[in-house]
């Protein structure tokens, strides 16, 4: 892998509290041409040359990932479950007929890039180095078919919390008009079109004073799916329910980690269909004690308000995280940053 040294480096910002707004000095770029991926190179984070006819701009043949690196208090760099992200990237690529990148190659490239950029990893509470791998088609052609040329890029963004209010609870609106995905579509994959299709509903929810929408299944409009930027969990006392992976929900790595943590801590976790009627019924009766979202960017996001049509339900105590969400946040970030032992072997440490 080639390393092209930049002539000058950026001044590192003192504040990285936003999400995905600051980028480090270097990125990794690998190209697919003539039926093979080249060795790739690490070079200055800069604009790419792309013709207006580049196929991704027209037909969206692109998949991405999101993962994070942390620095512990002894200075060691810690990646959280990177193999899972690159396995998921492979499956997203397969779904879109994009040539896959081997997990070991992707991890080798990421490791090298993060080593070079380790001084960019923020250490303030709630911050990390957000890693965004992206693969996209760049044929110079308008035909609708799989492309012959691709780029695989890894960029790094020192970031704080995804939601501007940090770990404070968010408000969700039940989305009754639009749907995110159906089984057989691309909902279970991290492909760019899923996000484009979600923006209209998300923007109207924000205009109405919510943070995000809670998507229902695309067929019956009855079962809860996910939030788009996170998977969703409901607590009825000590019983926790999360929608089962059904082919249209993204198999979140934080979702999987939270299920494992909760079960190991003795909670009863059910992965099953959960109808919006059960959720609203629980919100009305008080049986539903917590809602929280899980995601790489969102980490654990408590939800204290759920809107449905003209009705708004307070979940738990307004403005406060519930007990289970707080505990998970502490345990998960503790393992990620090295405050707690890595009891599941999730950390890949770079020395
Ligand atoms: C992530 O959690 O990494 C995501 O990709 C969600 C969102 C920022 C698109």
How helix-rich are the residues, as a percent range? Answer: 10-25%
Q: Roughly how many Å apart are the termini?
A: 20 Å
List the ligand species.
2-OXO-4-methylpentanoic acid
Please report the total strand number as a whole number: 18
SS element count, helices:
7
The gyration radius over C-alpha positions equals: 20 Å
Explain this structure to me?
The protein has 351 residues and is α+β, with helices and mostly antiparallel strands. It has seven helices and 18 strands. The chain has helices spanning 55-59, 82-95, 103-116, 192-207, 253-264, 276-285, 323-337, and strands at 2-3, 26-33, 36-37, 41-44, 62-64, 67-71, 77-80, 128-137, 150-159, 170-174, 212-214, 231-236, 239-242, 268-271, 290-295, 299-308, 311-314, 347-350. Strands 1, 2, 3, 4, 5, 6, 7, 8, 9 and 18 form a ten-stranded mixed sheet that branches. Strands 10, 11, 12, 13, 14, 15, 16 and 17 form an eight-stranded mixed sheet that branches. A hairpin with a 2-residue loop joins strand 2 and strand 3. The chain is globular. The protein starts with a strand and ends with a strand. Bound molecules: 2-OXO-4-methylpentanoic acid. 2-OXO-4-methylpentanoic acid is lined by residues 66, 195, 229, 295-297.
Task: Give descriptors for this structure.
single chain, 351 residues, alpha+beta, ten-stranded mixed β-sheet, eight-stranded mixed β-sheet, 7 helices, 18 strands, 27% strand, globular, binds 2-OXO-4-methylpentanoic acid
């Amino acid at each position: 892998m080639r390393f092209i040294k930049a002539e000058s480096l950026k001044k590192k910002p003192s504040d990285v509290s936003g999400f995905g707004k600051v980028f480090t000095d270097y990125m990794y770029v690998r190209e697919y041409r003539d039926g093979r991926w080249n060795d790739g190179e690490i070079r200055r984070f800069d604009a790419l040359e792309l013709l207006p006819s580049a196929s991704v701009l027209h037909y969206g043949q692109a998949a991405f990932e999101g993962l994070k690196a942390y620095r512990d208090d002894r200075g060691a760099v810690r990646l959280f479950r990177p193999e899972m992200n690159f396995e998921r990237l492979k499956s997203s690529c397969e779904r879109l007929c994009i040539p896959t990148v081997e997990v070991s190659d992707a991890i080798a490239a990421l490791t090298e890039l993060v080593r070079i950029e380790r001084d960019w990893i923020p250490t303030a509470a709630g911050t990390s180095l957000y890693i965004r791998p992206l693969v996209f088609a760049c044929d110079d052609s308008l035909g609708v078919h799989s492309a012959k040329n691709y780029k695989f890029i890894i960029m790094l963004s020192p970031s704080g919390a995804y939601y501007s209010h940090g770990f404070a609870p968010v408000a969700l609106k039940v989305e009754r008009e639009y749907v995110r995905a159906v089984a057989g579509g691309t909902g279970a994959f991290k492909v760019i079109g899923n996000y484009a299709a979600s923006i209209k509903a998300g923007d109207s929810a924000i205009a109405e004073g919510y943070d995000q929408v809670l998507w229902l299944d695309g067929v019956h409009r009855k079962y809860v799916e996910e939030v788009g930027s996170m998977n969703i969990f409901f607590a009825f006392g000590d019983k926790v329910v999360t929608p089962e992976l059904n082919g249209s929900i993204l198999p979140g790595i934080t979702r999987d980690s939270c299920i494992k943590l909760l079960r190991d801590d003795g909670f009863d976790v059910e992965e099953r269909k959960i109808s919006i009627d059960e959720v609203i019924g629980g919100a009305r009766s008080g049986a539903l004690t917590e809602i929280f979202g899980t995601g790489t960017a969102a980490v654990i996001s408590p939800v204290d308000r759920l809107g449905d049509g003209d009705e708004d339900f307070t979940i738990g105590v307004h403005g406060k995280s519930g007990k289970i969400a707080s505990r998970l946040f502490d345990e998960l970030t503790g393992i990620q940053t090295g405050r707690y032992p890595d009891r599941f072997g999730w950390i890949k440490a770079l020395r």
